[in-house]
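Final report, Chapter 2: Outcomes

The project's central promise was a pipeline that accepts a single protein chain and returns its three-dimensional structure in a standardized token representation, suitable for archiving and comparison. That pipeline is now operational. To close this chapter, we reproduce one record exactly as it appears in the project archive, with the input sequence first and the structure output second.
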Amino acid sequence: MKEKIKGLRLNITISGIISIVIGVLLLIYPTESLTTISRVIAAIVILSGIFVIISQIFDKGFNAMGIAVGGVLAVIGIWIFLAPGSIVSIIPIAIGVLLVVHGLQDLGLAAQAIKTKAPRPWLTFIIAAVTILLGVACIADAFKFIAIATRLIGIMLIYDGITDVFTVHKVNKAEKIIDVEVLREEDV
């Protein structure tokens, strides 16, 4: 049992150190990290497409539909590999569009607030305008927002790694103190 716990602590420590390294890379090189991650995903998609094609040819006899699906997967993977930034920037653009739509809806509600003589209707106009501006910012500078998010993820991974290593160190230290106390009692 004690060996399993030691192995677990070693795994947690190694995992923590890897988290710190990945976090630092994401923090310092967000664009390059995203490109690398996108290309790794693209390679997996390409290999999946090739695997589907091969399995449809050899395992199940010649299945044209399965081969077409594998081909589409492979082509999508190649596209992601060649243009990794375009796939990554889709996320903030989609969020930006969502924010603009919600802002426009809020603008309609602000107009309704004026018609119904709600108190402080100007506040709803400000909220709508800010929401629209945030959406436009996401759309206009999508890759910058992804880089910021990547840096935040890097900070989170660094925190996770440091706390994992710290926790293992504290438990090891406490366990050594308990082992020394047990030895002293046994000497009596």
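Archive annotation: The chain has seven helices and no strands.
This record, like all others produced under the grant, will remain available to the consortium after the project formally closes.
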